[in-house]
From TrEMBL:
Keyword Electron transport: yes
Primary site of residence: mitochondrion
Protein name from the UniProt record: NADH dehydrogenase [ubiquinone] 1 alpha subcomplex subunit 1
UniProt entry tagged with the keyword Transmembrane helix: yes
Keywords: Electron transport, Membrane, Mitochondrion, Mitochondrion inner membrane, Respiratory chain, Transmembrane, Transmembrane helix, Transport
Residue ranges of the TM segments: 6-27
Pfam families (alphabetical): MWFE (PF15879)
Top-rank lineage group of the source organism: Eukaryota
Cellular component terms (Gene Ontology): mitochondrial inner membrane
Similarity-based family: Belongs to the complex I NDUFA1 subunit family.
PANTHER family with a match to the protein in the record: NADH DEHYDROGENASE [UBIQUINONE] 1 ALPHA SUBCOMPLEX SUBUNIT 1, NADH-UBIQUINONE OXIDOREDUCTASE MWFE SUBUNIT
General function of this protein: Accessory subunit of the mitochondrial membrane respiratory chain NADH dehydrogenase (Complex I), that is believed not to be involved in catalysis. Complex I functions in the transfer of electrons from NADH to the respiratory chain. The immediate electron acceptor for the enzyme is believed to be ubiquinone.
Membrane topology qualifier: Single-pass membrane protein
Length: 89
């Protein structure tokens, strides 16, 4: 039975495009998370630790091993200003 060589070219193109798109997606996620793998299934503890890391280092993905917090850590807070809703009657 003869092999349909004409079908191998589109198959190669499709395979290459899946490989290129998968690699670009991986690079994009890695770049967005500063070289670390993305986090999945975050619970409240993880979210609080990410918020703490963001306040300490400026990024939720970096951590610090310094025993003393920087001076700016005393003034920044997790409490954000919220505006009250104006109810139109």
């Amino acid at each position: 039975m003869p092999v349909p060589y004409g079908a191998l070219i589109p198959l190669g193109i499709i395979t290459a495009m899946f490989g290129v798109s998968g690699s670009l997606l991986h690079l994009t996620k890695t770049y967005a998370h500063e070289g670390k793998p993305p986090r999945y299934c975050l619970d409240n503890w993880d979210k609080q630790m990410m918020e703490r890391d963001k306040r300490l280092t400026g990024s939720p993905h970096r951590q610090t091993s310094e025993p003393i917090a920087p001076k700016e850590f005393t003034t920044n807070s997790v409490w954000y200003l919220t505006s009250k809703r104006i109810l139109w009657q």
